[in-house]
Amino acid sequence: MTTAPRTEPLYAQVRTALIERMASGSLRPGQVLPSEFALAEELNVSQGTVRKALDTLVADNLVQRRQGRGTFVAEHTQERALFHFFRMEGIGGMPAIPQTLTEEITQRAAPARIATRLGIDKSADVVLIRRTRTLLGKPATFEDIYVPHALLPIRATDGPLPNALYTHYQSAHGLSVARAEDRLSAVQAPAKVVKALPQAEGQAMLLATRVAFDLTDRIIETRESYILTTDTAYAVTLR
Amino acid sequence: MTTAPRTEPLYAQVRTALIERMASGSLRPGQVLPSEFALAEELNVSQGTVRKALDTLVADNLVQRRQGRGTFVAEHTQERALFHFFRMEGIGGMPAIPQTLTEEITQRAAPARIATRLGIDKSADVVLIRRTRTLLGKPATFEDIYVPHALLPIRATDGPLPNALYTHYQSAHGLSVARAEDRLSAVQAPAKVVKALPQAEGQAMLLATRVAFDLTDRIIETRESYILTTDTAYAVTLR
DNA sequence: AAGTGGTCTAGACCACGGA
DNA sequence: CCGTGGTCTAGACCACTTA
């Protein structure tokens, strides 16, 4: 009854082929792709078709083009990880760069709600990164970051982790965050947060619950970020 | 010293020409555009160039293509206004449809911070729409929506306004919201909110401060939405 | 059957970056 | 200078909608 599965357009096949190379590590972040003509010849399609495939990858922030130089696999540079995936802005709209204050790395069985959110077995191990950070110089965030130990076997001795965690996932474990889904709500600062961040006592906090996906749509992280928004705000543009 | 202003690519000129037609009202929401070939002939470019221009308009949600039928100026359908520009989701991720409880329309001189945000003169008149709404059946939001009276001369007798305000701007005043910028923070429910929404007393609330732009990047609205996020959350996807 | 957008090709020329 | 991506064209054929 369902319509027969149409053959995918060529440009979509080219896109998939390139994503597979990135996911498998044969094309690494920062590396230059073969030229459009080279890819076209190799994959037996026209240059225009390769171009269209690359257009979709550019739109998804998976590759970057540089005229005269080539097309490069997107890197989680400090800049991108901090401003693209962490959208806190000061009053004037200028980006607020976070600075880590405390960091604690532990390994444990996944709590039920975390296992569900990560889509892993309840008894599976996760690494918990608990940290506090400043925004605009003031202590302002408390984060519980959970990653499946099977995918990202981070150890306590790996710390201190870099300011932009996603660059670490990529450089140390070959996993790129391609997409993240945030759910934002407001809560009263809970006790565990106040313990680490005394200035949050009695304050309303922004709670950002995130699930992050890699190139192949595997869930590689979930985090619960509690943010004091006295001087900053989470910025979003809708089109 | 600055580099000479390059001539804009043809497809960008086509894009601009089409946006102008939409902004001037010669192409109205829901209306079908001339076919790609017709536009190509009319504007003296190739069909491929028109196509590229349309691609950018599709990417910005300004037009929609329907294979076999044509390309249409995007409408603020109920669906789009409610789910695209209002991203509250229930626990399971299902969209939460708001229902208006109370609505009050007044006209006044713009408060200083509102005038600044709207980019209008301090003595200029604004229309204030103050309303409370439910989410998932429970009273949950309080909004102060300010629009410049010069652009959107809404009167108290125009009420009750439709559930999706942006459809009203479009159908009654010919203004389309093309883009909105939200800044999210957490606050304790202020007195003015509690007065209208007693269940917010003592609660942390999500405050969404929005500035909305039309096709020509004019600011046509700013709003301050206070949202109780006990059952819902503001959802965002980052790429 | 006619008309629309969707895909794909082949080839031209331009603009930029690096050797 | 050469190779890269960026723009633009002309034309073919496919897929979908409507009449």
From TrEMBL, chains A, B:
Chain ranges of the HTH gntR-type domain: 8-76
Keyword Transmembrane: no
Alphabetized Gene3D superfamilies for the sequence: Chorismate lyase-like, Winged helix-like DNA-binding domain superfamily/Winged helix DNA-binding domain
GO BP annotations listed: negative regulation of DNA-templated transcription
Keywords per UniProt: DNA-binding, Transcription, Transcription regulation
Cross-referenced InterPro entries: Bact_HTH_transcr_reg, Chorismate_lyase_/UTRA_dom_sf, Tscrpt_reg_HTH_GntR, UTRA, WH-like_DNA-bd_sf, WH_DNA-bd_sf
Keyword check for Transcription regulation: yes
UniProt-recorded Gene Ontology molecular function terms: DNA binding; DNA-binding transcription factor activity
Protein name, UniProt field: GntR family transcriptional regulator
Organism, scientific name: Rubricella aquisinus
